[in-house]
Amino acid sequence: MKLACQEILAPGRNLREKFENLKKYGFEAVELSGERLWERKKEVMDASREAGIELGSVCGGFSCRFVAAERKEREEAMNSLKKLLKTMGEMEISGIMIVPIFGPPQIPNLSPYKEAIELEREMLLLELPELTQFAQDSGTSIWLEPVNRYETHFINRLDEAVEICQKVNNSNLRIMADFFHMNIEEVNIVESLKKAKDWLGHIHLADSNRFLPGQGHTNFKSPFKVLSEINYKGYMALECGIRGEPEEELPKCVKYLKECI
Ligand code: LER
Ligand code: MN
After folding, report:
1. Which of 2, 112, 136, 217 is 20 to 30 A away from residue 90, measured at CA?
2. Confidence check: pLDDT of 259 > 90
């Protein structure tokens, strides 16, 4: 388990200072935004080398319209993800999370023929083999992220994401587990992680209120015990708000997380 932090949370006047601060606080890796990453490639790689911190993962910064009604939008989403995957491979970044749909269905409900969600699942299953193969050829991975019901109607729990990975059957498609969403959707986080153990590619950390771990009431100890038992070797990246000053709260959070591991 390697602790990572999203770049947006890091204090610092420039990228290098942000990365140096994260390293100083005890993080091993950074989670980057994918926004025009190809243009920032050199700056990001230089800052990572100079600060001695890994580039772990990418979150956001591309079109998520994979199952939109318009073919043009779907193709744009596929192409924008491919462009990012290629850059990530060149930067040796291990993977990117995708949330296939935010919000309500984007295509009509055709029941009794097929409900919107069935059509969306089928559409995604047509696209994922090509995207996953592209990720594999580029040397990186895609992680499907289950997100809570208030943000999407599609894939809320780990088992739903695992089912899709099983169908695609490519080792470069894995799921990711976000503690904030799991707190809302899973019956029992420990049991869900155990069941998903062979498919786990990445983790997002946030407390119950989506502030830093330690600033809410989530129990991290028992899920972390499971992650140790299953020998989870991936990243756990902070994706949350911060109550207080980042300079003080981020190192405190690292200490707290290390005590929980
Ligand atoms: C959205 O709530 C989320 O958790 C992000 O990781 C989506 O990319
Ligand atoms: Mn997340």
Report:
1. 2
2. yes
pTM metric for this prediction: 0.96
Q: Which two tokens stand for residue 181?
A: 């969403």
**Dihedrals φ, ψ of 10, to 5°?**
-80, 130
Q: Are β-strands 54-59 and 141-144 bridged in parallel, bridged antiparallel, or unpaired? A: unpaired
Atom of ligand 1 nearest to the CA of 148: 2
- CA 153 to chain CA mean position, Å: 18
Q: What are the chain's domains?
A: 2-260 (3.20.20.150)
Element (H, E) at 177: strand 173-178
Give me the count of residues in the chain: 261
Residues with CB under 6 A from ligand 1: 59-60, 97, 99, 145, 147, 151, 178, 204, 239
Could you tell me if 224 and 260 are in contact, meaning their C-beta atoms sit under 8 angstroms apart?
Answer: yes
Contact between 135 and 172 under an 8 Å Cβ cutoff? The reply is yes
CA of 178 to the centre of ligand 2 (A): 5
Q: What is the pLDDT of residues 185-225, one digit of tens each?
A: 999 999 999 999 999 999 999 999 999 999 999 999 999 99
